[in-house]
From TrEMBL:
GO terms for molecular function: hydrolase activity. It comes from the Bacteria. This is DUF1080 domain-containing protein. Keywords: Signal. The keyword Signal applies. Residues 34-236 form the 3-keto-alpha-glucoside-1,2-lyase/3-keto-2-hydroxy-glucal hydratase domain. It holds the Pfam family 3keto-disac_hyd.
Amino acid sequence: MKLFSSALLMGALIATSATAQKVNTLTSKEKKEGWKLLFDGKTTTGWHTYLQKDVSPAWKVTDGALELDPAVQKSAGAPHGDLVTNDEYENFELSVQWKISEGGNSGIIFSVHEDPQFKQTYLTGPEMQVLDDAKHPDGKITKHNSGDLYDLKKAPQNPAKPVGEWNQAKILKKDGKVTLWLNGVETASVVIGSDEWKDMLAHSKFKTWPGFAQYAKGHIALQDHGHQVWYRDVKIHVL
């Protein structure tokens, strides 16, 4: 019985190790299709804090993941700010894994126009919500749950995994059409500028924001909402 248990344990460790090796890497198929890693699993190369030259120390690499550590902001006075890609993208497929802390809030924001007149990324970029739906107050607000097109469109179901588990998100943006998936479930789909979009916008907090969703090409941002969050396996396929 002990030998059997040891064998099972060894098998589980090998499987875990194999899975870990696949994170922050591209398969041969992905390479042929033109996918590109946005995060190498070791450094913050290719990123900077919004409206800043470098990456704030609050964003660090921990166990192969980009982690926002609010404790660093409090103890060392590190500047706040979303982490954004150095490059801009218009038509793309983005794949990313995220894990949120208890009571945490964050988001994946895209088509971000970086300009001092816009003090935050969300003033120009739509957001795919990242949240502890069970314990954050936003979890009780319609269109504010994980996977939602934040404050614009509610997912038909909530496929988010419990706090502490990794979630797989995907964002596809092609010629103005945006489609979101969370853990394999389509959570939103809409064409920016369509009648449906205009109606959604008119019933959202963004209806009077002059720069919101006005830029077809922009940066991708990982939101600093003051809560601990982790991102990994961030990769993009430019279309």
